[in-house]
What does this fold into?
Amino acid sequence: MEVSTTRSTVKHFFIWPIYFTVTMMAVLLIVLNLPQPAINRIATTIAKNHCKPIGAADTITTPHVLLWDAFSCMAEQRPDDAVPIAIMAAAYLSFDAYRLQDGSKEAYIAIDSLRWFQRLMSEEQRMQYAASQNALRSEPGMWQAFCMKMNHIGPPTYYPHYLSHFRLPDSTRANGPLLKTDFDPKQTWRTILTELHCKV
It folds into this structure.
């Protein structure tokens, strides 16, 4: 009985984030077809009270959930919390692009993923986000502290099931496994941190 319960708990632990991500993406596809003012009102209402700073981030959260957390911070007028989470989401998107068999498909992932994040924000929110991002990047001490947090959190440990929902060319699936078999996660994470100009 204990073994059965344990297996059920483990299965729920790994499958729930997948269900959540897929459901959220479906909702976003519907929302993004609405007029811009309606998008802003709906998104801001839904997102309130869900802001999670980067200190609460983990390695099993997919980029889409991280971006939603970042927008939640914007909805609560906390751009200084939104920016680090959004950058982490972009880093995880880049990580997933690196481990694809065909790395040239990175554009499909980045554009589709970041497009809705930008569109969810109002013009005022975009300005607030840009100001906070510039402040973080222009202050060496703040940026290094952020880099240390990113290094401490580490690369994602989830399997990128969400990639199957992107409009990747059929050749990506037809030519073998979705992910590289000789992929080095630690080295790739160091590469991404270097691309972010992090000294770790």
About this structure: The mean pLDDT is 75. The chain has nine helices and no strands.
